[in-house]
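ugh ok fine here u go
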Amino acid sequence: MGNNLSQEIYKFTHQRTPLYGLLVMIALMLYSSIPAYKVNPFLITQGFGAIQWCAIIMVAVSADSISMEYRNNTMVTLLFKSNHPFTIYFAKLITLVVYGITLLLAGFICSLILMLLLGNNYSWSDNFHGYSLITALGYNFLGAFIYLLFTISLSLLLVILLKSNSIVIIIGLAVDFLGANFSGLLMNILPKQLWAWNPLTMINIIVQLSNQSVIKITHLSNFELFLGNGCYTLLFIILGLWAFKNYQK
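structure:
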């Protein structure tokens, strides 16, 4: 496992996609906050857009991490050299989680800097739905981390099944941009107690932790959102392992 992990980290750090992902996130944060009159408490607590963009970037990076192996015909070589093929999957998963944490930390630090430069009309102690801005920011980044685990595990599953990063990226964009709205729409038609647990609702964890009024939309408590994200992540990992074993031809 250690050997596979070190190989994955080496390959990952020598790719351009992760660096491009970081630079794109910073650029989009700047775009979201300039001119300064666009800055408001919601934007601040969402890390100047970093939280949403991190999820989207992780879809692309996760999909590329495996589809690259298929494009370069190196997956067979990896499987041949490994006595335990599942360690390849877990090595990629761990590498992506570490990159996701790095991306979130970079976004958090950039948020602090942008607040210092552009948030003159606000203070970190200002109230936001019963929390200080800095507390709400921390809660939302915590929610973003939980949702990143969901995103990474789902993206790996889809790219193993489809072997196409472009299709996975399209699906990921649809889930991130339209999933919550679509889920809310169907919640008005289907039984809320059942539909509330659908995977499209899980993205709301990035806003609900700092805004309890969102519970009226999700019909799930904070704990239930944590539980739902965790269960779906575990399910996607199990299915990903199964797919990785059976779809390598």
